[in-house]
Amino acid sequence: MPSWDNDPKGTMTAAVLTSVGAKPPSDCFNLNHSYPKPSLPGPEWVLVRVKAAGLNRAELRSRKGEKPGMPEFGIFQAEYHEDPPQILGEEFVGIVEGAGEKTGFKPGDRVAGWAYGGGKAHDGSYAQYTICHSRRCFRLPDTALAWDVLGGTCMSMWTAWGALFETARIASTSTVLVHGATSSVGLWAVLLAKEHGCTVFATTRQKEKIERLRQAGADYVLLEEELEGSLNEIVPDGVDCVLELLGPDTLLSVGLKHLKMHGIVVVVGILAGWGSGISPFLIPSTRKLSFFTSSGDEGLENLPRVMEDVVRKVEGGVYRKEVFVDKVFELREVGLAHRHMEENKAVGKVVMEIP
């Protein structure tokens, strides 16, 4: 028996997606207490005992049977599928239980992982154990922070940081518009940009979410229907940087429209769907359009330093859990967690604790 498998039965508890479609989320999942534990597929993989899993809207689309097409999972291309039964979940924090000889990890390491391909090319993080390629697994700083706090920090924070600092290269004097700011990435973008010294504009469609954005430090919180008039009045020449979290279909009407000359729009989310695309000839002259995804390799050499800095600021109260974590569910409540997100009640990260 492999050294990483301490369970003689080789089983675990998992929330298994058994069906998809337009039905109540709880009807799509089955809590299975004897699901086979994953094994390491190669020397570059790690097996992790999951302690908390962050939820993503892509997982809602998978649960509903929406298939946007094969993402570029690289090494996962041949194995890609989106058909039940499967275990969803792309991100997690936890403890390494087993590691291939080419990973640089060892049992007992506390890690965060972005398990791209989780729920599509292999079972994901809605379970007690998951596997992750070592390229997407990172050691956590030493900290006493609870697992749910770490689960609400890692992937969302890194996506926001990469968009702001790796791609947009914002300065402390920059004006930044976060379009779709109540998502987990959006809230982290507000927190990070404000801490950097920027003037931050944040948008929402719901009045009841305004206060959370103010708590995150946004200088101006704008309702979507009032965005154009309000923004033109405050910054008639536009902003330096727009983080677009709703998707391609709002690039012309919001992002590029409110961008000053030589400014940049960074697409980091598709909350409103994949959209129909945009012709490059419609991009206004002297404006720049880019994209950042945490599935890429850009800036990974900075991740340990950034994670250390952010964790210490969470410990010190600079970034507060009640701002960036929306709600914490148990694994058995996976259907409720999906429904909570689907009803657009979340402001920040929805996290599941794994027993």
Automatic annotation (TrEMBL):
Which GO molecular function terms does the record list? NADPH binding; oxidoreductase activity, acting on NAD(P)H
**Which keywords does this Swiss-Prot/TrEMBL entry list?**
Membrane, NADP, Oxidoreductase, Transmembrane, Transmembrane helix
Record the organism.
Answer: Heterodermia speciosa
Q: Where is the Enoyl reductase (ER) domain?
A: 26-352
Q: Which residues cross the membrane?
A: 261-283
Question: Per UniProt, what is one Pfam family of this protein?
Answer: ADH_N
Q: What name goes with this protein?
A: Enoyl reductase (ER) domain-containing protein
Q: Which InterPro entries match?
A: ADH-like_C, ADH-like_N, ER, GroES-like_sf, NAD(P)-bd_dom_sf
Which SMART domains does this chain map to? PKS_ER
Q: Does the keyword NADP apply?
A: yes
Q: Which SUPFAM superfamilies match?
A: GroES-like (SSF50129), NAD(P)-binding Rossmann-fold domains (SSF51735)
